[in-house]
Each structure stands twice: as C-alpha cells, then as structure tokens.
Amino acid sequence: MENTWLVAALWIGLALVSGLIAGWTGISISLVEIAVGVVAGNFLGLHPNQWVNFLAGVGSIVLTFLAGAEVDPVVLRTKFRESVSIGFLSFLLPFIGAFLYAYYVLHWTLEASEIAGIALSTTSVAVVYAVMVETGLNETEIGKIILAACFITDLGTVVALGVLFANFNSWMFLFIVATSLILAFVSRFTPFFLNRYGNRVSQLEIKYIFFLLFFLGGLATMANSEAVLPAYLLGLAVAGFFLQEKTLTARLRIITFSLLTPFYFLKAGLYVSLPAVVTGAGIITVGLIVKILAKFLGVWPTTRFFKFGPREGMYTTLLMSTGLTFGTISALFGLNHGYINQVQYTILVTVVILSAVVPTIIAQAFFRPDREAVTREEKLEAKLVP
Q1: Helix or strand or coil: residue 166?
Q2: Of 356, 314, 380, the residue nearest 31 (C-alpha)
Q3: Residues with Cβ < 8 Å from 39, sequence gap 6 or more?
Q4: Hey, where are the domains in the chain?
Q5: Cα–Cα distance between 30 and 24 in angstroms, integer?
Q6: What average pLDDT does this structure show over 103-130?
Q7: Taking every pair of C-alpha atoms in the chain, what is the biggest distance, in angstroms?
Q8: Which of 68, 83, 112, 376 makes an SS bond possible with 108, Cβ 3.0 to 4.6 Å?
Q9: Residues with Cβ < 8 Å from 340, sequence gap 6 or more?
Q10: Which residues cross the membrane (predicted)?
Q11: Quick one: which H or E segment has residue 300?
C-alpha cells in the first residue's frame, strides 16, 4: 500500500532540491523542476498518482488564471496591434510549419499532422508567466505585451483544436453559454464580493476564485475541452481589478508557486522518456528546429516592425518560442482520442518540453532586459508622449 505522506515528502523534497539548484545556478525554477522531473522519472521510477495529478492540474489552472490576470487591459488596448500581430503570427507560422513537417516529411496521417501543428504552435503561458514574475518584468510594459501576445497565441491553438476536433454537443453548448455569462458579469461582481467579504481569516476571496475556476473547469472537461481555457479567460476578465489588488495577487502567487506548480512542472518532466528521446533524437531535433525557426520567422520581424529594441525583440521571440501547457494538452488529447500513437505522442511531448527549456535558458542567459533600465525607459517615453 502506498504511503501517502512519504510520497508527498518525495515530491516536495524534489521541489525543494529544484529551488536550491535554481538559486545556485540562476536558472528559472520552472525549468529546473522540469529537469528534475526528467531525472526522477527515468532514474528514480517516480510516477504521478491520482492526487498528484489533481494538484498538478490545479497548479496549471491557477497559474494560467494568474497569467491572464496579469494582462493589463490598458496595455492590451494601447498595444493592441503589437500584441495581436505577435501572438497571431506566433501561432500561425509554427502551426503551418509543424503540420507540413509531420505530413510530408514524417508521413503522419492528416489528423496526426494537425495535432502536431497545434501542439507545436503553442507558447507556454506557465513558463512565460513564471519567468516574468521571477524577473519582475510582469510589472513592465514589455512583459505585459508578451503576456498579452501569449494569450493570442494560445487562443489560436484552442480555436484550432476546437474547429478541427471538437464535438459540438449539448455539453459544449452549456459550457459556452455558462462561460459567456460568467465572464460577462464577473468583472462587476468580483469587486463587490471582495469589498464585502474580503480580508477575513477564512479567505473567502480565495475560495471564490477557486470555486469559479473549478466550476468552469468541470464544464470544460464535460465538453471535451480543457480547464485551462476558461481559467485564462477568467483571469483576463478580472485583470483590471486584480492589478489593483496586489495583496490578493501575492497571496494567490504564494499558494501557487509554493505548493501547486512544483507538482505541475515536475510531472511535465516525467513525460520525457530518455530511451525514446535517444531513439527519436533526429525527428525530435528537427521538430524543435521547425518550431523555433517558425516562431522566429513570425515574431522577430514583427518586433522590429513595431520598433522593439534588438535585445527586447530577441527576448520576446525566444519566450514566444516556448511551449508546455497547451502543447502537452493537445498531444494528450490526440493520444486519448486515437489521432496519434504512443511513439508520436512521445515525440511531440519531448519537443514541447525541450521548447520550454532551450529558448528560455538562452533568453534568460543572454537577452533578459534589465528591469530597472526598462522601467526608466518606459517612464521617459511616457513623459515625452504629449
């Protein structure tokens, strides 16, 4: 019989080790947790059980909600062209490139190639948001543009998955109607609820957020969609209010990064089978190159068109090249519904996880903008604007 407490101690111990390594090396904690998960899965025989899957799922949902809540509505409006252009091209070109590679080079079926296109077109909200928070760039305009562009990219992947594979039944109709109604009223009701019931020992505002996330996630699951989609939309709906509620946001971050996201990122690393990686190294390498190259062709010229600095443009391009949450979800969707087999799933998930690690390490090591310098420049630009 499994000893729940020892299993929990093992997972939290790995998270603790990951945090220490991240502190010693300066590498983003999310990437270290993924790498530790790879080692634990291949050499320690670690595997997720039901409650680990639940905590990891909650971690991805709340992290996605927080990422949506960090999208400044003012920046989204004032930098609408930049955000939409970067986000849309970040989705479109990798989708086309990965689809063509899978269909014409690997000779996968049409459905498997479509899954490949969707899985490799994503940008990892989880990784990008974690990096933004660690560096403090989520408080800057460039960070908010990147988060807004991530939203557009992943919205494109969700729409593509829905149009190509969704089962439009009564549950899907109910999910769409319920989500639309909640999103329409939540931005007005949330300030009222928090002003009336917030700041109590029982933390009713946290329970309120979790209730909405779980409820919409449950409806999404019934509709064969994914719980992270309404979480992102819900975060975006309350973003204006949450940007003013720094204390509430900080409490949610503490819960998320200390307890929930370690399970999510460690579990993501478990999907990488090193023997399978060695066997399919050529295919995986080319797939990673296709994704990153397509992202560069779409994002880098767009950042230059909108007069991003060379450093900021490269940093934006590299972070938009990451993938994790929606990529693994899309691959798992294809596997569960028989559109791809286990070998194809391993290839896609490995490419997705490598895309979370490689571009982020390069971006953080060589192109990370200095937060203070960026803030000073943004303040100067604001003064110069009439």
Answers
A1: coil
A2: 356
A3: 269
A4: 4-384
A5: 14
A6: 91
A7: 69
A8: 112
A9: 108, 111, 112, 115, 116, 331, 334, 348
A10: 7-31, 51-71, 83-103, 115-133, 145-165, 171-194, 206-221, 227-243, 250-266, 272-294, 315-335, 347-367
A11: helix 281-305
Q: Tell me how far apart the alpha carbons of residues 284 and 102 are, in angstroms, rounded to a whole number.
A: 11
CA distance 386 to 78: 15
| Residue 244, number of CB atoms within 10 A of its CB | 9
Rounded CA-CA distance 289/281 in Å is 12
Alpha helices in the chain (DSSP H): 4-25, 29-43, 50-69, 73-78, 80-100, 110-119, 125-135, 141-165, 170-197, 204-222, 228-237, 239-242, 246-255, 261-270, 274-279, 281-305, 310-320, 325-336, 342-362, 371-384
> What CA–CA distance (Å, rounded) separates 76 from 327?
24
Q: Return d(Cα 94, Cα 74) in angstroms, integer.
A: 29
Integer Cα distance of 34 and 31 in angstroms? 5
Coil, strand or helix: which one is 270? helix
CA pair distance 120, 27, nearest whole angstrom:
24
**pLDDT, tens digit, 9 for 90 and up, residues 72-97:** 777 777 888 888 999 999 999 999 99
What's the DSSP call for residue 341?
-
Tokens of 245: 């509620």
**Cβ neighbours for 101, distance < 8 A, ≥ 6 positions apart:** 116, 286, 287, 290
- The predicted model scores a pTM of 0.77
What gap in Å lies between CA 102 and CA 114, rounded to an integer?
Answer: 8
pLDDT tier for residue 182 given thresholds of 50, 70 and 90: very high
Distance (Å) of CA 41 to CA 6, 14, 155, 342:
17, 12, 31, 17
Which CATH code for domain 4-384? 1.20.1530.20
Report the length, in residues, of the chain: 386
What residue has token string 């290839």? 347
Spatial separation of the C-alpha atoms in residues 242 and 248, rounded to whole Å:
8
Confirm if 229 and 220 have CB atoms less than 8 A apart: yes
Calculate the alpha carbon distances from 294 to 289, 305, 365 in Å. 8, 17, 22
Residue 125, judged by CB atoms within 10 A of its CB (0-12, 13-18, 19+), counts as buried
Q: Are 204 and 198 in contact (CB under 8 A)?
A: yes
Q: How far apart are CA 278 and CA 281, in angstroms?
A: 5
Cα distances (angstroms) measured from residue 80 to each of 71, 94, 152? 12, 22, 11
Contact 316, 86 (CB under 8 A): yes
